[in-house]
Amino acid sequence: MESKVGTNRTAVAEFILLGLVKTENLQSLVFVLFLLAYLVTVGGNLCILAAILGDTKLHTPMYFFLGNLSVVDIGCITVTVPPMLGRLLFHKKAISHDACLSQLFFFHLLAGLDCFLLTAMAYDRFLAICRPLTYSTRMSQTVQRILVAVSWACSFTNALTHTIALATLHFCGPKEVNHFYCDLPQLFQLSCSSTQLNELLLFAMGFMMVGAPVVLIVTSYIHVAAAVLRMRSAEGRKKAFSTCGSHLTVVCLFYGTGIFNYMRLGSEEASDKDKGVGIFNTVINPMLNPLIYSLRNPDVQGALWRILVGRWSLT
Q: Does the UniProt entry include the keyword Cell membrane (predicted)?
């Protein structure tokens, strides 16, 4: 391989994203389904934001983080789905090298924010249930903003590191990416130069982005479970489990698919499975989050109902 990619190498200026399906009829179906999924996701997360901003009862740390999570979910699906819909609509599969790197950067930036926001929400539940007397001081507005700022800083560092490392690789053909968006495992397969450093970075940064947050979340919920089981009030236990259950469901979906995708580098034989995982990461998870948090949360349901009733009464 090394001898074939010498100084006369021709750099790849664009990649061909093969997408999810090949037949035109199925492409039309995929277009409709993903367009509907995008609209549902954006609409659902905007409803969550409207409920949080419009109801003073929801101006609490937990809903502050949930609002940030909704913004991130809108961004995450917007980075991948609209470009794919555009390629399906105009029957264009090519994406420039720079556009591919930009998509990868923003996807990993937003996915990283998801990791840390979910961790901050677990820490918030730990303080609220296990340290209720000092909760207001330990989770003040300043602390909330610091946690979000640190999340942005760590996510930006992770995304920029992977993007710069990927930019140093040489791509001289083939240029077909068997996916519907640009991501690390699929691009590694196309590199004409060694990806050993990139793979080491993926595992090292993966520990920071996934390993450490998972340990913190699990530790928080071990303490939360112990505290809830000690509660004498059945209503209190029910409310605690309801609030934490929604968060745990989202955590399992997000980290389960993320670990499957990045903690093992996809081979060509596993590329179709990678597409399925990619759909979960970019479409299904952001779409399910508002449904999970609203269906299992009477506070959010009540806030949405009051907003709808208030607007109806005004008309």
A: yes
